[in-house]
Write a structure and sequence with these properties.
235 residues, mainly alpha, 11 helices, 0% strand
């Protein structure tokens, strides 16, 4: 009995070391992406004319390249709202909205299933399933759905981190995708119309739209802070 127990403990330590190495590698990859790709993409996203010129160089593939940029943005510390405004500027409000929604659906699907496949195993190494089940967010689907709606409805909340963690929670992917996408739609539409207004020289209209988004972001920050404090109090 004693040798078997030692083997089990050795295996557990080995798994934790491997998990730590994987986390370190993922962190290093994220830093490398941010340093080498984040800054150029951020500069381009802040200059709609430069983005339009860049996409025009790709010809018919420009729309696919834009979708790829927005999917890549989901891995970088660049606000989706920024590239969405550029989409409205370059492609117009309707097509810009459709392209952004396509990128959101693809990136959310990819990230959710990657974290579901490998992230859960890493989580189990450092946070046993028995302890996970004690968290209210793991046990209460209504709380998860409500939190998802709030997070994605209001601009300024950390959606990227929420998508990465969504696959770690026992929930239906279809329901999560439906709620998060529907909640994101108003902001995505507003950003695209704002970008289109800038491109058309309707600066007053663009300012009004962007001010509304800023106000929503501030309100969202307070709501997220309140929800976070309440959630911590109930864990």
């Amino acid at each position: 009995m004693k040798p078997r127990k030692e083997t089990k403990e050795t295996t557990t330590v080995r798994e934790k070391v491997l998990g730590t190495a994987i986390l370190a590698a993922a962190t290093a990859l994220f830093v490398a992406f941010t340093v080498f790709l984040g800054r150029p993409l951020l500069e381009m996203a802040q200059n709609p004319e430069a983005m339009e010129t860049f996409l025009a160089e790709w010809g018919a593939l420009g729309r696919l390249v834009f979708i790829g940029i927005q999917m890549l943005q989901s891995l970088l510390p660049i606000p989706l709202e920024l590239t969405t405004v550029v989409g409205g500027y370059v492609f117009g409000p309707v097509e810009g909205t459709l392209l952004t929604m396509c990128a959101v659906l693809l990136s959310t699907t990819l990230i959710f299933h990657i974290t579901k496949r490998w992230g859960a195993k890493l989580l189990n190494l450092f946070f046993p399933p028995s302890r996970q089940k004690k968290l209210r967010i793991f046990r209460n689907p209504r709380l998860r759905n409500a939190l998802t709606w709030v997070m994605f409805l209001i601009p300024g909340t950390p959606k990227r981190l929420f998508v990465f963690s969504a696959g770690l929670v026992p929930q239906s992917f279809g329901r999560f995708l439906l709620i998060s996408t529907a909640a994101r739609l108003p902001t995505i539409v507003a950003c695209n119309f704002g970008g289109h207004a800038i491109g058309e020289g309707k600066y007053e209209q663009a300012i009004i739209i962007l001010v509304i988004l800023i106000v929503l972001s501030i309100v969202g920050a307070f709501i997220y802070w309140a929800v976070s404090r309440r959630k911590k109090g109930r864990l």
